[in-house]
Amino acid sequence: MTGLPAGTVVLRPRPRVSFLLHRRAAVVAGVLLLVLLVVMAVAVCVGQTLLTPGEVWRTVRSGSGQYDLVVNELRVPRIVLGALVGGALGVAGALIQTVTRNPLASPDVIGVGHGAAAATVLALAAGASSALPLVSVAGGLVAATVVYLLAWRRGMHANRFVLIGVGIGVALSAVVQLYLADSQLEAAEQLKLWLTGSLNGRGWEQAVPLAGVLALCVPGLVWAGRAVRPLGLDDDTAAGLGVRVQRNRLALTVLGVVLAATATGAAGPIGFVALTAPQLARRIARTPQLPLLGSALTGAVVLVSADLAARTVLPPVEIPVGALTALVGAPYLLWLLGRANERH
User: Fold this and answer.
1) In which element (H, E) is residue 41 found?
2) What confidence tier does 341 reach under pLDDT thresholds 50, 70, 90?
3) By the 8 A CB rule, do 157 and 97 touch?
4) 141 contacts 115 by C-beta, under 8 angstroms
5) What share of the chain is helix, strand, coil (3-state, %, to 5)?
């Protein structure tokens, strides 16, 4: 068929249903899925207690045995949660970067992480520590909503959106710092651990609700895979093609914020995964747009690998995975800034 972008084919599972598939992106997604499964398998086997794949398989199948606590209660739930959180953050980052047309944008930039942190502070101050996941999700959603409303001026302008998000984030960070300065030592330590982002002590209780949210978002993500293509054009060209630019931007933003806020509620604000995963996926797949599935798989691989390193690099000390992703992600951010300066 003529007129298709290079390297793409059209799939027609039904007469009135068609999908544009980028061949290299599909191959890369398959390879990333295989890499993710391998990394997850290694993560189950490696730790303070080293296990063979056979021991892990027998324990998972039987649901009991000598290593039941290590495998079924500690490692498997944590690794599954890490994959879900990484996937959600990867997709959320791809959606926000598409909407803003800015590779330096991420859910954190538009206030999701800061809003979740400020809401967590209020919950701790009110003694509602049992409701922290729900409160943090609500805080992230409210903060992103405020940023979007303030950025709206007869349409959503990407640069204004990012700048207002940074400003709101600074204000919310001040709330957190005030709480840390005036709180009891135990409460301050609890908040500091949450702010760093960690999968330690988390499992099915956090993974199951996150998996449910991801399942509910699947139809929206299928639509988003088509909606992101014309948003790579300028607004006038996209509108001339019949695209409702502002409506699509709003829908993509809402979808990205919901995913990022839910992931933050499950594991805390883990930085740089949403920033780096979409750009890495795009460079590997060589697609004109940020690939959503590739971004999800890249985010999952990055976070599961980082958590494995955080558990094993300095035994018996366990580094919060958010600290490790920040340590690796900061140089990447500087590299992106350098590339942006070279273009100008």
Assistant:
1) helix 23-45
2) low
3) no
4) yes
5) 75, 5, 20
